[in-house]
Amino acid sequence: MADAKTTITQLLSLADIKIDGDRPFDIQVHNQRLYGQILGNPELGLGESYMDGWWDVEQLPACGKIILGKPSVQDTPQPEPHKNNCRVYAL
């Protein structure tokens, strides 16, 4: 199993966010315990670690929108092969 840092890095890469990257929406990590905190407490870990100063980002709203709002490949509508042309969303 991948370590916590690798897992979080891979998940963020799905939204094109880099850890310690140079874009205003890339996350800057100040405490390596961040990764375990997020995986250990997925509901609150990201927010609590931000408030504790473990990470920051130049444009927090942009980062949040990307993380929460950018559809992944699995969320892309796929036409269903029926006459009514319904769309199916993969989970």
Reconstruct the topology from this structure.
Layout: H1 4-13, E1 28-29, H2 34-40, H3 45-51, E2 55-56, H4 60-69, E3 78-79, E4 87-88
Describe this protein's structure.
The two termini are 23 Å apart. The protein is 37% helix and 9% strand. With 91 residues, the chain is mainly alpha-helical. A hairpin with a 7-residue loop joins strand 3 and strand 4. The relative contact order is 0.15. The protein has one domain (4-88). It has helices at residues 4-13, 34-40, 45-51, 60-69; strands at 28-29, 55-56, 78-79, 87-88. It has a two-stranded antiparallel ribbon with strand order 1-2. The chain contains four helices and four strands; from the N terminus they run H-E-H-H-E-H-E-E.
